[in-house]
Amino acid sequence: MISKRVVQSMQNSSYIRRMFEEGIRLKQIHGAGNVYDFSLGNPDLEPPKEVTEALKAIVAEARPGLHSYMSNAGYPETRAAVAGKLSRVSGVEIPAANVLMTVGAAGAMNCAFHSLLDAGDEVVVLAPYFVDYLNYVANHGGTPVIVACSPGTFLPDVAAIAAALTPRTKAVLLNSPNNPTGAIYPESVLRALADALAAAEKRFGTSIYVVSDEPYGEIVFDGATVPATLAIFRNLIVASSWSKSLALPGERIGFACVHPLADDAKELLAAMAYAIRALGFINAPAIFQRVIERSIDARCDLASYVDRRARLLTVLSDAGFTCTPPQGALYLFVKSPEPDEVAFSARAAAHRVLVVPGVAFGYPGYFRLTYCVSMKTIEDSRASWNAIAAEYGLKR
Ligand SMILES: Cc1ncc(COP(=O)(O)O)c(C=O)c1O
Q: Is the pTM of this model over 0.90?
């Protein structure tokens, strides 16, 4: 018998799965080229040449022990390379010992929550949220406390977060640039949040950690910059990866970084290194730790994302949809022309356009699209978007 908890959480994440299944069904009927599937956010660039060259060189060198187990925290050289980059970017000196190599950002968050949470401890999760956050908190006995971001800007509502903090709050989970909204949280908002957390810590006599999920940190547009959380929060665990920035999602390579001034930093690092083992990861992938060490400053060419983002925005606004251009990440979060965005998504599917309703991210009234689809899909979808817009009487 499957656990009731798992059955329940599978049901909760069923919107994205339903869209996926609907996509398969529609593709069988109409042919893959006639279904415009904007529902799955898979980075589709190729990794930069530094990565492929490093990979080839590492395999060719065939250094003894290349495939062996290592310390749960990862190779010291890789941790030092990551710490060096974090120090350069944030201006905060990060020792290599404060970096742990993990199985993606997802692995880093699970290690953080495994280390922080006792049963019933609370984690503030901002809506709209990446759907798996609820699992990551529940996996370790925690209770997610959902706080909605401000409508329109999708920025954290610091007063609402402050009001949600309790003596059981162990962490606040942030994600900027954000999936699904593309918002980048400005420094002023983050500093206000840091002040609110410090006040609550003082009031309750507790430590409240910010767990900052940053896999889209380098996927930014129009010259936008992402404030360095390491320079703003002290009780901070950064969870990140190269899944998006180097287009390596399948390689499952990421890291966690505990701020050197965090409360109980040493104990937390030891607990997280233990969690890597206890959760069954054992260590982050060996070869890709070596690859990252050698290509730490490599970057993907984002030109094709830039073009596709712009084209999808044009197609939508030509059709009459209102959509704020996202500053980062790989998605557009668009206001549904009817309040029931699940009904809207079904109507869109009738025009062979697949989107994810906002309820999947805990934020009804909107729908999410990814522009990680071919330019041809974006262009070919134009007629369908126009037809959907016409059904709602949107002005073009
Ligand atoms: C907001 C967010 N966090 C975490 C992840 C998982 O990242 P990783 O592949 O590095 O585990 C994703 C993947 O799509 C994501 O969108």
A: yes
**What are the pLDDT digits (tens) for 205-246?**
999 999 999 999 999 999 999 999 999 999 999 999 999 999
Q: How many residues does the chain have?
A: 396
| Peptide bond preceding 180 in cis form (omega within 30 of 0) | yes
CA 356, CA 178: separation in Å to the nearest integer? 16
User: 361 with 129: CB under 8 angstroms?
Assistant: yes
Ligand 1 centroid vs 366 CA: distance in angstroms? 21
CA of 104 to the centre of ligand 1 (A): 7
Residue 362 in this model has a pLDDT that exceeds 80:
yes
Task: Specify the CATH number for 49-294; select among 3.60.140.10, 3.40.50.300, 3.40.640.10, 3.30.565.10.
Answer: 3.40.640.10
> Mean pLDDT score of the chain, rounded to an integer?
95
Query: Where are the domains positioned within the chain?
Result: 4-46+301-391, 49-294
Ligand 1 contact via 111 beta carbon (within 6 Å): no
Q: How confident is the model over 315-359, as pLDDT tens digits?
A: 999 999 988 899 999 999 999 999 999 999 999 999 999 999 999
**CATH number of this structure's domain 4-46+301-391:** 3.90.1150.10
Q: Is 144 in the pocket of ligand 1 (CB under 6 A)?
A: no
Neighbouring residues of 273: CB distance < 8 A, sequence distance ≥ 6: 71, 72, 73, 100
Is 104 close to ligand 1, i.e. is its CB under 6 Å away?
Answer: yes
